[in-house]
Predict the structure.
Amino acid sequence: MVSEYVVEIFKYMKQTELITLPNLKYMASQKELAWSMRGILLDWQTVFLCVNIVERFLSARVVSLAKLQLMGITCLSIASKVGEIVAPSISHFLHCVDSSYTESNILLAERYILKTIDWNLSYPNPMHFLRRTRKSDDHDGKTLEWRLLATPPSLTLNHAQSDGKRASRCLLAELLAIRARNRAERE
């Protein structure tokens, strides 16, 4: 980020954060899905924009279990086009899902998902806040800041009112808890 504009950038990111928050009760409307399935989907790759697109889409549309993997891989494809210097090809994503779908399926789903979220991909992801926190705390970036874990993950439900540091702490704690649960389930 450009330091001369940091105040304006963070003001914009906080405004955008409020607009791009998913409905926190979206899983209640998902007839064939459960919170544990969300964890499995997110275990493929932790891409913050992908997670945001998934959750905003699930906030707006009911997804059948049969379409969950298509929705997830399509959101990952969209997010990679925005966040990666060289985005993986559709064939790479087809390989990830054992060719369960066609290129046409993913491209059609891509248009449907983007239309559903009003083509809004300007999500201020937690890494922006973590980088800012690291700079403002004069952190060297080489070691994990254990004090970031001081906030319980349940407070992420209230991150619309959060400042960058609290949101970053909450998110980091939640990600580490999800990773630990997923590893424990596999063992």
Observations:
- DSSP finds eight helices and no strands in the chain.
